[in-house]
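pinned: reference chain
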Amino acid sequence: MTRQVFRRRSRLEAPAEEVFRWHARPGAFERLNPPWEPAEVSAHTGGIEEEGSRVVLRVGPLRQRWVAEHYGCRPGREFRDRQISGPFAFWQHVHRMEPDGASASFLEDEIEYALPGGAAGDLVGGGLVRSILERMFTYRHRVTADDLAVHAPCRGGAAMKIAVTGASGLIGGALGPFLTTGGHEVRRLVRRAPRSEDEIRWDPAKGEIDAAALEGLDAVVHLSGENVAGGRWTDARKARIRESRIDSTRTLARALASAKKKPKVLVSASAIGYYGDQGDEWVTESSPPADDFLARLAVDWEAAAAPAAEVGIRVAHPRIGLVLSPAGGALGKLLLPFRLGLGGVVGPGRQYMSWVAIDDVLAALHHALVKEEVSGPFNLVAPEPVTNREFTKTLGRVLGRPTVAAVPAFLLKAALGQMAEATLLASTRVRPDRLRSSGYRFRFPGLEGALRHLLGETAS
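pinned: its structure tokens
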């Protein structure tokens, strides 16, 4: 059995003790898990500081079982894990945090591993495994550094107790680990019976919520709502889309307004559908709403939060653009056809796409939670929107695939009707003026950099 060693070392602008705490908090694995390499925690006992604690993962497309055991922890400096059973013949991982002065440190991951099959295994899979590790730890170190930088201004302050709706969705599912690794306590609003102390029961369709569980919250992030691009818009579906957003917002806002100890801030999602199809024209937060289904929905959606604002709760409405993540949404759906060489322009290709990387969504929502000057609507989009043709070429270049296919507009209209016109063919060129003027700095202002990070594809 031939053992190989992989190392990744990065300098971080954070003390070693804080880097260790970040890794020790709930959600660290989920936050570090690359979105292109799905892995799921199916069971765990204890944390990284407990000798012999274990985590059971399901990894890879075949969901292979991997059992790892933590051992040899030196608090503030190092923790280790080793494979008990799984895909490798041998796996041992050392996570080191070495001080570099009082306010910086080096993060080093050292992995000693062996593939099954001996020399034959090395010949067949050695290069592939090395490539996977390079991509994975480039991503992990970037996320660690960026997240620590976002949370740095709050370091040493009081942790917030934050409730999140839509916590199982694309954004909410990523927001929870982002907040908990930053030291905050997250409560999730769920429609079923709560299974743990960090869940709060509600039924927005019936206007029901566990008001007592909302007492003492510092902040609420409201992301709940049915997917507008989930299928053709029948009258019944449009009614469900409206109800899922407006009724839930009204129920939540009224409950928060009635609380004895009210939260300081409610970040209640909206969408750039507010502006409608504007062709090549730039739009900002001062632009008026359009007069179509999505615009009227956004106007009423934002207005439904009024009961909270009326009692002095700071209310912010992120008008969210096209969120990019391979874990779901539009990018998740596009990856397979593009990887097969079947990607191409949608409709005329001239329509603008105001996109934003999932990492910037999380950081900007946190920015809205902690910056008191952020209130009212703000556009949550990257500062460099692109046309559909530019998006197509960029994604093809990142994946190394041709993009000669095309989907004519008439086919989309025939298949999806009004939904296609409003979401796939409409052109909305949005600027995030209020977000930038409040001091937010984008991690990924440009599309190619965002896609390479999210897909683990380095520049050739």
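why pinned: The mean pLDDT is 94. The longest helix spans residues 118-151.
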